[in-house]
Design goal:
Order of helices and strands: EHEEHEHEH
Shape: globular
CATH topology: Rossmann fold
CATH architecture: 3-Layer(aba) Sandwich
Number of strands: 5
Largest sheet: 5 strands, parallel
Strand content: 15-25%
Number of domains: 1
Radius of gyration: 13 Å
CATH class: Alpha Beta
């Protein structure tokens, strides 16, 4: 059985709601899934999983959250642990045009990860946003 980690940061609960839906979708596709807030997950744990779902909202000037998520992601890139790992990215945004996800996607691919897909929603995920998050989780599992 494929093992997936869903690692997220959420300031308002929007990205957490997406993360929970990603878990549901991945479990429904047959994976063993664990949900982590980024502060309770270390880069060294990446090796224990077949795939990763990484979630962070757009912050500031369309960037990853700087206190916890950016340092985690930068360490994951620098360590080489993302190389060859199937990954999906997700998050919510309230301003801008989604440029943070484009930048994050490029960084993920440059780190050697197998970027399966991305999914963003504006503000709180509605029914369509929850379903899209579930679909993202299932899509990750199908890529494993």
């Amino acid at each position: 059985m494929a093992k997936v980690a869903v690692v997220y940061w959420s300031g308002t609960g929007n990205t957490q709601k997406m993360a929970e839906a990603v878990v549901e979708g991945a479990q429904g596709a047959g994976a063993d899934v664990e949900l982590f807030e980024v502060d309770s997950f270390t880069v060294d744990q990446i090796d224990s999983y077949d795939g990763l779902a990484l979630g962070c909202p757009s912050m500031g000037a369309e960037e990853l959250e700087e206190g916890s998520y950016e340092p985690f992601f930068a360490e994951a890139v620098e360590s080489g642990k993302l190389s060859g790992k199937p990954v999906v990215l997700f998050g919510s945004w309230g301003w801008g045009a989604g440029a943070w996800m484009e930048t994050w996607s490029e960084r993920t691919k440059e780190a050697g990860a197998k970027l399966v897909n991305t999914f963003i929603v504006e503000n709180e995920p509605d029914e369509e946003g929850v379903q899209g998050s579930k679909d993202l989780g299932a899509e990750l599992v199908s890529a494993l």
